[in-house]
Amino acid sequence: MKPTARDIIHTDGSAQLFRFRPEGVPDDNRPAVLLIPSLINRWYVLDLREGASLVSACVDAGLDTYCLDWGQPEDEDRYLTWEDVLGRLGRALRKVKRFSGQSEVGALGYCMGGTLTSIYAALYPEAMAAMINLAGPVDFEHAGTLGVMTDPRWFDVEAIADAGNVSPDQMQSGFVALRPTGQVSKWVTLADRVFKPGFLDSFRALDTWANDNVSFPAAAYKTYIEDLYQKNLLVQGKHYVGARRVDLSEIEIPVMTIAASRDHICPEEAARGLHDAVGSKDKEMVVVPGGHVGAVVGSRAQRELYPKITKFFADRLQVEEKPKAKKKSKSSKKAKKAKANESPDAEDGAQTSPSA
Please, what is the Cα angle at 301 between 47 and 282, to 5 degrees? Predict the structure, then answer.
């Protein structure tokens, strides 16, 4: 694996906001895009390895690229509500505007990140200028096997959430139940293709990510399962965040909805719910070949999916020219340095540190 070089520009509880460093590209006046992964999977599926990295594709296309890492919830995060989660998303969007210097920001949500991005865009239409829902379920009437598994007739979400955060092992067992022969087929595939150039590196990277899950905060989990999976309130316009009703028709920005043809996590019709509900005149529904993960990191993604995503944002995000900084005299530099030594800057609690 060769992750794209990045800096941590903001922390928010267990969450971190990354900004990726461009190589050979001027670090100014670029369209800004925030990538929002699922709350329960590690963010680096979007930057998995060389040749299978949506992050790298966005950076190479000249986009000022950011990603929200939700982090690993601790025991005390069992009380983190659905509203709290959306609050973190909103703060990340505002930080992107500050660091990029752009008033228009694009957002791409993957999996549950697409669901959260859709909800936030409906509540705060001014927060983003264009959005992509990448395999995020919105119409849970078409939730497939996961919808059957969470049916309230046999799935007691209260009992599960009352025990605290839902552990990775609990959720992993649910995903294994979706495809009981998945583990066997994985090793059969490895044996069949182990000598194919590049396959072993790809297999290791994806297998590492697939087994690197995080807990689901209990309070947010209860809302997610009960309101969306069990009652399908979001697409009906009956889902509330705090005291505010989520009306997807309030989304009037350009929207692209991407579904995968063999997705058992987010079937095509579950994603299409957003496309049908938004009030946008500029909207597009795209179906790509592959499964929920394979469509995003498979060999065809670099050739077909990534160019669609980067072109969508490049064509729709207006870029504001930043004023060029004036050259400062030596005396003013010394004065600024002295002032910094007297009072360290801690504005908004933002923290910047190198990573990768």
Answer: 100
Domains of the chain by range and CATH?
6-326+348-355 (3.40.50.1820)
Q: Helix H segments across the chain? A: 54-60, 82-100, 112-123, 144-149, 157-162, 168-178, 182-193, 199-210, 218-223, 233-236, 268-277, 294-297, 299-300, 306-316, 330-342
C-beta of residue 285 within 8 angstroms of C-beta of residue 291: no
Q: Per the structure block, which two tokens stand in for 62?
A: 């000249």
Residue 354: strand pairing partners: 7
Supply the pLDDT for residue 3: 84
Nearest-CA neighbor of 67 among 100, 35, 108, 99? Answer: 35
What does the alpha-carbon distance between residue 150 and residue 166 come to, in Å, rounded to a whole number? 14
Cβ neighbours of 239 (radius 10 Å): 21
- State whether residue 111 is helix, strand or coil: coil
Contact 295, 206 (CB under 8 A): no
CB 18, CB 355: distance < 8 Å: yes
Q: Which residues contact 126 (CB under 8 A, 6 or more apart)?
A: none
Q: Is 328 exposed, middle or buried (0-12, 13-18, 19+ CB in 10 A)?
A: exposed
Kindly state the tokens that stand for 151: 């049916």
> Could you report the per-residue pLDDT of 270-312, keeping only the tens digit for each?
999 999 999 999 999 999 999 999 899 988 999 999 999 999 9
Structure tokens of 100? 């990029």
Strand partners, 106: 33, 130
C-beta separation of 257 from 283 below 8 A = yes
> Residues 6 or more apart from 285 whose CB is under 8 A from it?
257, 259, 272, 275
Task: Pick the closest to residue 45 from 56, 33, 54, 32 (CA basis).
Answer: 54
Q: What is the pTM of this model?
A: 0.84
Side chain identity at 96, as an amino acid letter?
V
